[in-house]
Every structure is written in C-alpha cells, then in structure tokens.
Amino acid sequence: MKIPLKAKVICKDGEYGIIKELLIDPIKEKVTHAVLENKHNGLQVIVSINEIDYTTDSVITLEKSAVELDKYPPFLKIEYIKVPNINPNISYWGADATMGHSYTMFPYVVHDGTTSVEVTNEEIPDGEFKLRKGMVVKDHTGKKLGNIDELIINESSGSITHIVMRKGHLFGAKEIAVPNIHINRYEKDFVSLYIEEKAIDALPEVIIKRKWE
C-alpha cells in the first residue's frame, strides 16, 4: 500500500483535505498514524493508519464523515503561557550608599505585570517521529541524496518496505524506491541511509503521477 504525502483525503461526505504528515515508530519501522488537515477549517487531526480503507497514487479514502474526523485527537494543541510585560521606557533608579549618589540599575527596565502568549505544540505520540513530503534523505556520510516523496508499506503489518525518494531537480528529477534494508535511522529532520549515491543510482526508478503535480 502506498501512502502519498499530501495526498487528497476523501471521506463519506466528499473531499476532507490532505495528508499533512505521517507519524512513524522508528524502532519498529512502522507507520502508525497519518495527520489529516481539513481543507475547510484548517483543523489537523491524528488518525490511525488502520482507519485508511483505500489508497491510490493521489488519494486515500476513509469510511468516516468530516464531523467524525474532526473529533479525532488534534495534532496541533494551542496553549497559553504567561510572560512578564517589559516596559523599556522606564528606568529603575536606586541609591548607592557607598558612593553617596543615585545611579541607574541595569537593564533599565522593570516588570509591568504579565500577559498571555499563544504557543502551538505538535502532539506527536511518545517515541514517534513525523515524516513530511520533502524531508531530506542523506547517505551515511551526511551527503544529501534527495527528498522523500512517499512511503510504501506492507498493508497487513504496517511496516515500511520502501521510501520513494525524489532525486534531482525539475525535468531531470527521478523517483527511486529505496528498500527498507538500506535505511539506517530516522531523525527529526532527515532520513539516513547506509548506502552512498552510486548505489542509489543503481536502484529501480518508479514512475508516479499525481493529480496535484
């Protein structure tokens, strides 16, 4: 089963939105959840990969309504934290008993109450990473090889069998299916492979056409 990143999501009511991210368990090397973004209200929710009924190269379908999907756990959680207000226009004066004259205390500001600041956090389950379209793929020396386009997983186990990597630019770009055995580790900002560029070029190219490209 292919899971294209940024694929269109179809629910019982019609088009819901897109796949925004995929969450993986790097120890088990399994895709566990998809982050879906509602195109109508921008809400992002976490849905188990087992909820996906059908996939193509550009679409996934779920037997849920938009209302039902919006009730799934949110991926983005907004919190409000209190921080002190700083008034840079007020100098704080004191007296120096040893010198016998007044002086200005650093840093020339005083606290003036508190205010609430909005902070948005991603609710990623413990021990999991997110994969997004365009994430960098590197060889074992740290050299960039390309960018992730999508994942191919075993439908029954949920295990990742290949990553589809885009290598090159514009008209010279090609998409290569990299078997899971070549994946060294998943990091927060990139995927590391055991092999180098010459070995990558020997892997089979895959042809994937998507409606949004």
Summarize the structure.
By secondary structure, the protein is mainly beta. Helix content is about 5%, strand content about 55%.
Structure class: mainly beta
Question: Quaternary arrangement of the chains shown?
Answer: single chain
Count of domains: 3
The parts where pLDDT drops under 50 for at least 5 residues are 90-111, 209-213
Account of the 3D structure:
This protein is 5% helix and 54% strand. By secondary structure, it is mostly beta strands. It folds into 3 domains: 2-77, SH3 type barrels (Roll), CATH 2.30.30.240; 79-120, no CATH class; 133-206, SH3 type barrels (Roll), CATH 2.30.30.240. It has helices at 66-70, 197-201; strands spanning 2-4, 8-11, 14-25, 30-38, 44-48, 52-55, 59-62, 76-87, 92-96, 101-105, 110-122, 129-131, 136-138, 144-153, 160-167, 174-179, 183-186, 190-193, 205-206. The chain is globular.
Task: Describe this protein with a few key phrases.
SH3 type barrels, disordered C terminus, seven-stranded mixed sheet, eight-stranded mixed sheet
What are the SSEs and their pairings?
Elements: E1 2-4, E2 8-11, E3 14-25, E4 30-38, E5 44-48, E6 52-55, E7 59-62, H1 66-70, E8 76-87, E9 92-96, E10 101-105, E11 110-122, E12 129-131, E13 136-138, E14 144-153, E15 160-167, E16 174-179, E17 183-186, E18 190-193, H2 197-201, E19 205-206
Parallel strand pairs: 2-7, 13-18
Antiparallel strand pairs: 1-14, 2-3, 3-4, 3-12, 4-5, 6-7, 8-11, 9-10, 13-14, 14-15, 15-16, 16-19, 17-18
